[in-house]
Write a structure and sequence with these properties.
alpha/beta, Glutaredoxin, five-stranded mixed beta sheet, two-stranded antiparallel sheet, 5 helices, 30% helix, globular, Redoxin, Thioredoxin_domain, peroxidase, Glutathione-dependent peroxiredoxin, EC 1.11.1.27
C-alpha cells in the first residue's frame, strides 16, 4: 500500500557516499526535525532523470532551500557508487544522493516500479515528497513524464 499524506515515513537504513566509501544512514535521522524535499526516480544516468528531473533540482536548490527546506534528497534504487558518480556528473553538491540499493525504502512506502519485463528489475516510481519532521505533507507521483515531481512543481507547493 502506498504511503499517505499525514503518515510517518519509515525508518530504513540506506547508503550515502562518505570519504571512505558507502556509509549507512537512517532515513529517520535524515528526516527528524527537518523539512525535506525528497524526489525519487527510476534510475541514475537514465535519459529523463539525467536530462530533466535531477537538473531541475540542481538549478532550483537555492530557491527550494530559501522556502525553509533543510535538505533536498534524490533517491534511486541504485548503489552508493552510482549515485555519487551521477551526482558529481550533474554538479549536484546541494543535493543528498541517497542510494536505496535493494529498494528497502521504496518498498516500505509502496512506490515500487516493476520493470523486470524489460530486464531493469524493481525500481522506484518517479515521485516527489515534502516531509516535515518525518511526516509526509505532500506526495506527487508521476505516471508519465516529470511534471508532478519536478522541482518547479515542488517549489510552487512550498
Amino acid at each position: 500500500m502506498t504511503i499517505q499524506v499525514g503518515d510517518q515515513l519509515p525508518n530504513v537504513e540506506l547508503r550515502i557516499m562518505g570519504e571512505k566509501g558507502p556509509e549507512p544512514v537512517q532515513t529517520g535521522d535524515l528526516f527528524k526535525g527537518k523539512k525535506v524535499v525528497l524526489f525519487a526516480l527510476p534510475g541514475a544516468f537514465t535519459p529523463g532523470c539525467t536530462m530533466t528531473h535531477l537538473p531541475g533540482y540542481v538549478v532550483n536548490a537555492d530557491k527550494i532551500k530559501a522556502k525553509g527546506v533543510d535538505s533536498i534528497i534524490c533517491l534511486s534504487v541504485n548503489d552508493a557508487f552510482v549515485m555519487d558518480a551521477w551526482g558529481k556528473s550533474q554538479n549536484a553538491e546541494a543535493i543528498i544522493m541517497l542510494a536505496d540499493g535493494i529498494g528497502a525504502f521504496t518498498s516500505a512506502v509502496g512506490l515500487e516500479l516493476d520493470l523486470t519485463d524489460i530486464q531493469f528489475g524493481k525500481r522506484s516510481k518517479r515521485y516527489a515528497m515534502i516531509i516535515n519532521d518525518g511526516k509526509l505533507e505532500l506526495l506527487n507521483i508521476d505516471e508519465k513524464g516529470v511534471d508532478l515531481s519536478s522541482a518547479e512543481t515542488l517549489l510552487a507547493a512550498l
